[in-house]
Amino acid sequence: MATRGENPSLPPEMIINILKRLPVKSLLRLQSVCKDWKNLFKTPYFIDEHYHHSAQKTPLLISFVLAGNPRSSSLCLLRHEMESVEVERIPAMGSLKRACVIIGSSNGLVCVILGYDYNEGSPPSLLLLNPSTREVRQLPRPTINDGTYMFWGWGFGFSPIVKDYKIVTIHHQFYFMNNSQINLDNIWVCGAEVYSFRTGSWKVLEFDIIKSVRFQSKPVTVNGTMFWLGLQCEDDHPHVMIVSFDLSREVFKLIPLPSLTSNTHTYANMLGDYEGKLAMLQCYISHIYDSSIDIWVLEEGSGAYGKIWYLTKKYCIGRTSYPAYGKIWLYPLCFWRNEIVCQNISTMCREDDPAYNVYNLTTNNDLKKFHLSESTEKMNGIFNYVESLVPVSGT
Q: Following CA atoms 326, 328, 332, 336 in sequence, which dihedral angle do they give, to the nearest 10 degrees?
């Protein structure tokens, strides 16, 4: 307790405990209060304390929203407020007025491909953003010019083992059909690279093990490992595989996928991070304009011949899960804590109703519908996002 004539003060640990609970926007304003606070907010200790506290809350969602002009986009945050989803637009940050694609979000940092067009062939421009602090960093382009940069060949993640952020890009070659469309049955891997933020440089990777893999999904990073869904096409009977890339060891690995119930009406498979575990979502048509989504969690365990992966079915989302909505065809976009964000494919081609839905896995019967502010706007990729003070430089 302060004596008479002394200014009252709080212990430093109590001040930190209070400040770490504030949003980044408030902390940025408080930097002008005193030099000590400004310096505190830049220390790794406070940055970690603030992030870990923020990560306990329901994460935001971040996406680039495309309007009528395909060459323009705006960065948006989606907040889960009670029974609704609120959309907050982030003011343009430098060159982000152009169309962009988010390739990953980790610890408050977002990696973006700028003005991305995979038909151009040349390496695209890359940016690292912290939307909360509004910091932007230009990154070096990949070094390999052979092949094509397909959107599903990009990944961004963090390795807690080596404490380094990394970008992975897989280069593809393919043939065009007579109508100038890509022949999806004739795509193969011709190279791979990884960018380390610690070294600030690109490194060419050994990729022989994935040469015959046809990648089927965008990657997801779980606990320092990046995963893709793919088909191994070495014979006339393609095998469903999971491609893993250990961000610390920088090595690819193929994981045979345990057999699932065969369904000839499957229209999409994707991977996700569900409660810190790798999850697979299998989407199939159950009735005309009705869809079902099975959610499986993949965990590594010990078998008679070493380590194997087990599939455990967690949820099945079907027509009985949302009877009030009638016929609906859902395409999952991402997990949002205990919910899934989906797009209704039956309205996907209707510009007057690009509706999105949030399905609650816990209640098993709650399907909330939301729109972006303009009826013609659509989300171009969507990721979980947690506000942080992590700097874009020195990561």
A: -30
What pTM value is reported for the model?
A: 0.86
Based on its alpha-carbon atoms, the radius of gyration of the chain, rounded to whole angstroms, reads 23
CA 375 to chain CA centroid, nearest Å: 24
pLDDT, tens only, 58-100:
899 998 877 666 556 678 888 876 455 666 776 666 555 566 7
Instruction: Indicate the angle between helix axes 44-54 and 12-19, nearest 10 degrees.
Output: 50
- Provide the 10 A C-beta neighbour count for residue 175: 9
With CA atoms as reference, report the closest residue to 97 among 72, 132, 67, 133.
72
Cα-to-chain-centroid distance, residue 139: 19
pLDDT recorded at residue 194 = 97
Residue 149 near residue 169, CB atoms below 8 Å: yes
Mean pLDDT by 10 residues, the chain (395 residues): 59 91 94 90 96 92 74 76 63 62 94 66 82 91 73 88 95 64 67 94 94 88 94 74 95 83 67 93 72 86 69 79 63 89 69 71 74 65 93 81
**Residues ≥6 apart with Cβ < 8 Å to 33:** none
Residue 330 · residue 290 · CB < 8 Å: no
Q: What is the 3-state secondary structure of 12-44? A: HHHHHHHHCCCCHHHHHHHCCCCHHHHHHCCCH
Sign for the pseudo-dihedral over CA of 72, 87, 84, 267:
positive
* Nearest-angstrom CA–CA distance, 298 and 300: 7
Which residues on adjacent β-strands are paired with residue 294?
A: 282, 316
Spell out the domains of the chain, with CATH numbers in brackets: 10-56 (no CATH), 57-385 (2.120.10.80)
In this prediction, residue 14 carries a pLDDT of 92
* 265 φ/ψ angles, rounded to the nearest 5 degrees: -105, 20
Whole-number Å distance between alpha carbons of 354 and 346: 9
Residue pair 92/82 in contact (Cβ under 8 Å)? The answer is no
Q: By CB neighbour count within 10 A (0-12 exposed, 13-18 middle, 19+ buried), where does 112 fall?
A: buried
Contact 129, 174 (CB under 8 A): no
Q: What is the pLDDT of residue 118?
A: 47
Helix, coil or strand: residue 259? coil
Instruction: Name 179's Cβ contacts closer than 8 Å, sequence gap at least 6.
Output: none
Rounded Cα–Cα distance for residues 132 and 57 (Å): 16
